[in-house]
Amino acid sequence: MRLGQPPRDWRELLRKALWIGIWLVFLNSPFLDLLSGEHSTAGTAGGWLGLTVFVGLYLALVSREMGPRAFPRWLIHGIIAALGALAVLLTLTLGSHWVGLFVYVSVACGLALPLRAAYWAVPGTTVLMALVVAYVDLDQLSSMVLLTLLIGFAMTSVSQLVRTTIELRRARATVARLAANEERLRLARDLHDLLGHSLSLITLKSELAGRMLPAHPDKAAQQVADIESVSRQALVDVREAVSGYRRPRLAEELAGAQVALAAAGVTADLPAEPALDGVPEERESALAWALREAVTNVVRHSGARRCAVSLIRRQTLDGPVLELSVEDDGPGGTSGAAGGGSGGGHGNGLTGLTERLQKVGGSLETGRVGRTGQPGRTGRAAGSGYRLVARVPAGVPQEAAGGTDAAGDAVGSGT
């Protein structure tokens, strides 16, 4: 039986009805008392009416509390007060056979009231029942007091189980919604990074092919072949991004950066095959995305003639980190370009990249080169280039087990 949910079919409705109805066994005594004929006609009619109203209120309250939507708090208090009043009135007027009604009042308190209120209401109902029993039939006092108290507190546990089940179901629904939103954000970031890089390269090669076609048709044909290759790879990447299985590798992105920068006429200074000992795959993937985003912005927006890429392992107070730096000498800015204009604001690309790095414990820094008056690595004057630096935690390399230079060691040498 599913707690806290409406029945799905008639079988489940029947099971819930039986579970609730079995507790009506304590009404056998009032029922038999009315059939005995010991009361006047008016007393019997009043007894049947009172018993019908009592059972109706009780079943309405219990069945609603076992579902996902309970009655308003004021209505719950009113129903419990009515049940208590009917129990007192019927027991005092019709005799000790009706004392069992207080058990249902105790159940209603334990099931429908908040936990702290139920801890007071159940003993209060028991005391009220004891006073009434002491007046009508003192012999039943001990057994009924214990029964009313124990069943009432048992129902507080059932109530907590139902409420916890409902809250857990709502939490699961919230987690599912958040997971769906996260997947949409991941897909948006991946498509931006994939298509931004690929379409920029296709645009560059298309322009080159158009300029080469009149005088060098063979070279133009090579550019068209490259465009086809890039387009096919972009299609594969998009399919893998949708499937959620694609993780770019640094070596592949370095090779792609060489091609993209060369096609844009940018002189590239790139590291050799990177040594990534001890670096988890997800952190390498985050750096690969950073390299792709940075190179795409250099090609599309910087107007640079040179671009230097370095990959360095550093020892920091928080442990070893792997640092990727992409620096150009162009007058434009990758950060501003990513946002669709010049300036220092972050755009969708760098925002998504920051989120990727933060997920693996990394960080991203961007800004103009040489703000302190020192020239950058590309040789341009201070303030004339742009630098993107991405860092992720890294394991200690095997060759540096005895100690690591705090200033940093190059992971790949420049070519």
Automatic annotation (TrEMBL):
Database matches in Pfam families: HATPase_c, HisKA_3
Give the Histidine kinase/HSP90-like ATPase domain ranges. 284-372
Q: Disordered: where is this region?
A: 325-415
* One GO cellular component, as annotated: membrane
Alphabetically sorted, this entry's keywords are: Kinase, Membrane, Transferase, Transmembrane, Transmembrane helix, Two-component regulatory system
Molecular function GO labels: phosphorelay sensor kinase activity; protein dimerization activity
Report domain Signal transduction histidine kinase subgroup 3 dimerisation and phosphoacceptor positions: 183-248
Ranges of biased composition (kind: Low complexity): 400-415
Compositional bias of type Gly residues: which residue ranges?
A: 331-350
Q: Where are the transmembrane segments?
A: 12-32, 44-62, 74-92, 120-138, 144-162
Q: What is this protein called?
A: Sensor histidine kinase
